[in-house]
Amino acid sequence: MCGLTGFWSPHARPPRDAEERVRGMALVLRHRGPDDGGAWTEDDGTVGLGHRRLSILELSAQGSQPMASESGRYVIVFNGEIYNHLELRSQLEHRARWRGGSDTETLLAAFEAWGIRGATQRLRGMFAFAVWDRRERKLALGRDRVGIKPLYYAWSVGGDFLFGSELKPLRRYPGFAAEIDRRALGLYVRHGYVPTPLTIYKDARKLPPGSILTIGSPVRNAVAIERYWRAEEVVERGLAEPLNSTDDRAIDELERVLADAVRSHMLSDVPLGAFLSGGIDSSTVVSLMQAQSSRPVRTFSIGFEDPRFNEATHARAVARYLGTEHEELYVSPVDALNAIPEIPFFYDEPFADVSQIPTLLVSRLARKHVKVVLTGDGGDELFAGYNRHFWVPALWRRLRRIPGPMRSAMSRALTLASPRTWDALWTVADPLLPARLKQRGPGYKLHKMARILEARDAESMFEGLVSHHSGADAIVLGRPAEVPVEPWYGSPRLDGPTSRMMFRDLVGYLSDDILAKVDRATMSVGLEGRVPLLDHRVVEFAWRLPLRMKVRGGAGKWILRQVLARRVPLRLVDRPKAGFGVPIDLWLRGPLRDWAESLLDGGRIAREGLLDADLVRKLWAEQLSGASAWEHQIWVLLMFESWLASTRNDAPLA
Fold it and tell me: Contact 251/562 with Cβ under 8 angstroms?
């Protein structure tokens, strides 16, 4: 796990100048790779590769990067882990002479043997790489199948092609135009993240998951992007060739696939552990780790004094049952306040998933003890774990029979009481409610439900549920007329809203929100985060499972629960879906209020000319009064303003 960056230029320059540029770009990624750093430039200064290293496999200098292949044809900078690299080595044994034991060296030998695309298709892992072919004088960038590791690219004003694990090194390059893309800003305000392939900047892009980009022409923007793995094809193939099996056999097969993925993800030359929330996904991963470990697994969790958001007690119960070596940290508003100023630097692009705070703090806790953690991310997207996956179809079947005027009246009725009033009423009724109706923050959810009651179909209902601001057009000034962003993925033929929502979550929310959150948080402290549930073999198997094995009895993740039940009593983990939330409403009205007030100052926002200052102030006033539940929308705006302020400290290289 590391950080990479570099440039390709149609113009020759002195090698010393090229090296200084690329070293400066790599330096701002030192948090991603605190153990070592290196740079390489082509003889004519047209190519520079920079790297920061977090040593996980092959701890000696034989694993340092940039690294050249045995023949000298390829030079690479690489970020990630190749879990099947020992298997690939056995296939390449007769073609290569090994200098060390790193997976980077294995990858270079695979390029020599099978070419870049052929080798990439054989990889099992999480990765982003930039490789320069000295013979063909072509640069190739590659990214793993589901987007676990990030990779950005851009063009400078002078026609140089730039790339990096984050946007920071691109901003450091002379001639990078850091002009905010108002279309991307509108999408950020709506979703809390900027969707692929856009970035917050007009001239920068994210490389889509499962893609290889190649450049070798001096013509600006002359890049070729090909996809070596297509999520839509995996989905269609899985649905066309479903697993024809009994429940018991399907559970056996899923357990085998998951155990194999977890085993491969435990490959490490340094101490490793796992994040444990006590939910289905992380508990499944930890239980499979412990079953294959000769010593207690190290596990880590975060807790809150507010019982509505505290999952530490659940995690502790699972850890005790499995016999892990467990560490937990209770987070106070002061802890959050101290962490917030660092968020813009590490997240690097406006990003507003409030669980970024506990993820950052649990990463710091884990890094004190281990250098690698496994997480349970991906289970919701693959096994229908979000409430919307099974609520939306059921709700739409009922709502579509109700006339529009009546639905409008229902929407108004739900908002007559404030979110805090609903929360209080729900608390009183909680002892009488069935488990499926017990909710955290019901007031916010009911107000959100009110906004989608007038949806025209199940898909628009889904859009409403995953959007923070439906009025992004109004709040972002000077936003171009709505032009749909061409999706980087295709449209598979899917039956039913649940499958369509799961696919959209897989290619959108998962890579742009969940995985970005975990990558930035873990790498902020030089911690490698691994996601075994997103091993591409698990993804492909999960889409072969009939929907009835995922959604059953009005709840999702049925088959994953059955796998977990073989090792952990479900009574320890079976509870309403909570997520990794924080009491952001209380914090914004309490210890974070002054910080928020300074960022949401009307004069400041008006001078920036990007957001409607009057509308921002209106939302903030309603949040403080309790008239509306805008805490998540407010957090989106705060994270943008905080990020915008932080970028003013960036200075390009001389």
Answer: yes
